[in-house]
Amino acid sequence: MTRILSYNILVGATHRVNQVEHMIRSVDPDIVGLVEATDPRVVEELARRLEMQFVMSGNAAHERDWQLALLSRLPIVDWQLHRGADVLSRAVLEATVQEPDGRRITVFVTHHAAAFSEQRAGDHIRRREARELLRLMASKQGEAHLAMGDFNNIAPGDAFQASALLGYLVRMEQLHQREPGAAVGHPYLDFVVPASLRFFDPLLRAIPRSRLLRFLFDRAASLYAPRGSIALLRGAGYVDCFRAQNPGAKGFTCPAEVPAGRIDYIFASPELAATLSACSVVTGGDGINGADASDHLPVVADFGLPVERAPLIEHTAEFASL
Fold it and tell me: Which of 37, 41, 195, 322 has its CB 3.0 to 4.6 Å from that of 69, i.e. a possible disulfide?
């Protein structure tokens, strides 16, 4: 069995390497895709502690220069970087690993643009990125491969607790105003709200305090929430591993402090999805609360026949409805 973990570690996790290590170690993965891997020292240290090989998309030039990394207990036999500056907001990291039986799996690690203050919350940008990702993966048709990472998009049919996210954005705005350095990487109200609509900010700040306004906001936001890029991937035949294994579960991954939506995914090709045996959201592990490690919760999936190892169920759980 091969266990794969996708994890956005929030601006490199420079001061949270221990927490991130415990979150990863608690599920004992074979392959780890890291998003926002901006600090190469953290990637190197995690690889050393977990006894894994690693590749990186590059060294960050500044704290918001999001990078990607892949750690693997299995041999990395090939890897390359796809920049696509005119199409992709960020590079896609491609790596091929070899399982003990000789089968190779190609992994694409991606981080789609947030761009929530753009028209239609940036959906046209993420659709463009999804189409480019599909173009890159086309060369692997008929072979076992997957895409994982932070897609910054809600899946069609998924729940979205927008009022919980709004309350978080308001708190992050207050933190940003008090301590700008402490809020780096966290979205806040004016990061999400377009400048032309910021006259609504007083109303938006009031919504989390009213049960009726929260109800109405959740209904409206669920209809407005962009879902296009996930629909493209599903339409191309890629299997949303969490939803395939958990048809009725929310699976919220972000923000970890008050999970409001599922935006982190593992998508498997039909060849690989045929061996999918489990997929869960990791809410904590080894005594660490997921919110203390990152603003995202990781997603973990098992492929192939199970072997003796740490049971996945002991380290994952659904958050209760907020």
Answer: 37
Q: Which residues pair with 300 in a beta bridge?
A: 5, 280
Total domains, the chain: 2
Q: Give dist(CA 106, CA 67) in Å, integer.
A: 19
Outline where DSSP puts E strands in 184-263. 239-240
Q: Which two tokens stand for residue 47?
A: 């690889």
Grouping H, G, I as helix, E, B as strand and the rest as coil, residue 316 is coil
Query: Which pLDDT score, from 0 to 100, does residue 61 have?
Result: 62
Contact 246, 283 (CB under 8 A): no
What is the share, in percent, of the chain residues with pLDDT greater than 90? 64
**Of 170, 196, 220, which marks where a domain is finished?**
220
* Residue 241: C-alpha distances to residues 6, 148, 168, 281 (Å): 12, 10, 27, 11
In angstroms, what CA-CA distances link 208 with 50, 217, 219?
Answer: 41, 9, 14
Q: Quote the tokens at residue 238.
A: 């890629």
Give 113-137 pLDDT, tens digit per residue.
Answer: 887 767 667 788 999 999 999 999 9
Q: What DSSP string describes 248-267?
A: T-----BSTTS--B--EEEE
The amino acid occupying position 71 is L
320 domain-assigned: no
CATH code for the domain in which residue 305 is found: 3.60.10.10
With H, G, I as helix, E, B as strand and everything else as coil, classify residue 72. Answer: strand
Amino acid 322: pLDDT:
29
Cis ω for the linkage preceding 255 (within 30 of 0): yes
Q: Which of 108, 132, 99, 110 is nearest to 232 (CA)?
A: 132
Instruction: Give the number of C-alpha atoms closer than 13 A to the C-alpha of residue 219, restricted to the C-beta side.
Output: 5
